[in-house]
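Suppose you are handed a protein chain with no further information: no name, no annotation, nothing but its sequence. What can you learn? This example shows the usual starting point.
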Amino acid sequence: MAGAGSAAVSGAGTPVAGPAGRDLFAEGLLEFLRPAVQQLDSHVHAVRESQVELREQIDNLATELCRINEDQKVALDLDPYVKKLLNARRRVVLVNNILQNAQERLRRLNHSVAKETARRRAMLDSGVYPSGSPSK
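A reasonable first move is to predict its three-dimensional structure. Written in C-alpha cells, the prediction is:
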C-alpha cells in the first residue's frame, strides 16, 4: 500500500498529486463500496421483516398453546413449552433491536459519506483545495 503522502493515479495511469488525488481516490473508493452497503442494507431490512413475522408466529403459537392447555380435560403441562416460546420471542426481539440499531448507524454513515462526497465535489469544481482534514 502507498503511504498517505503519495500521489493517486488517474484512470489514464498518470499520477494526480495533492488533495485532488486524495479526493479522487476517496470518491472512487466510496463508489466502489456503495453497492455493497446498499446490498447489506437491503439484507438487513429483509431479516428484520422475517423476524417480525417470526415474532408474530411465536405469539400466535404461545396463545394457541395456552388455549389448548385451558381446554384440555387431561392435565397437560404445556407451561414449559410456552416459556420456551416466550424466551425465543425475547431473543428474536433482541436480535431485531440490534439489527435496527446497526441499520440506523449504516444509514447515518451513508448519509455522511454522501454529504462529504458532495462537499468535496463542490470544492473540486470550484478549484478550492482543503489543506486540513474533512469537515464534520
